[in-house]
Amino acid sequence: MLTTLASLLFLPALPPEPMPPCPPSIDRCASLRLWIAPHDDDAFDDHAFVATQLEHANLHHQPAGLAFAIVETRTLTPAERAIVSRADRDALGHANWRRGVIDVYLVSSLANVDEPGEIRGVHWRSRADRKRRFIIVSRISPPHVLAHELGHYFGLPHSDAPASLMNTSANALPERAFLPDEITRITRRARALFSSGLVADPRQGPP
Ligand SMILES: [Zn+2]
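Above: the input record for the complex with zinc ion. Below: its predicted structure, written as tokens.
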């Protein structure tokens, strides 16, 4: 009976425990706001999924002196769990945007808006105001997707180098990381974003 009920209702999607803070030794800690769309798959553990994505993001950005901490978690509506169009993407993040935090949206499906099919993640600019940027990650994502999208957030384009985490083509190696020139670019962009206040460090107080 309980199982039947749970499968009919959307389960509460808030993580049961807080995520780890940035390591004290890191140069810059970026504030993330996490927005979680509800889902009806009681076998899918949002907390474990987000913890793994965050762990990989921290691991890959560490050479740039950068780490990430979730400063706030909010729940989306059931209608926001499937993101189909460009307008859906805009609607998800445009109005919520604010200085100091990087918004990350966790959804159940994210359509490719250029051709049929689904994608795993995207770094998106609101078409009404391109300075409002945010990240959407689908629950189908392997562990490195948030790290890759944050690479875009900190200024990186895609790469043809097989060993680059920014390579999304068929010649990409299974084990990839940011290359030295990519680390340099992330470091430079992080310095600019933090000094302008567009990204805030939670260790300096609330953003
Ligand atoms: Zn990409």
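Notes for the reader.
The chain has five helices and seven strands.
Residues 28-195 form a domain with the Collagenase (Catalytic Domain) fold (CATH 3.40.390.10).
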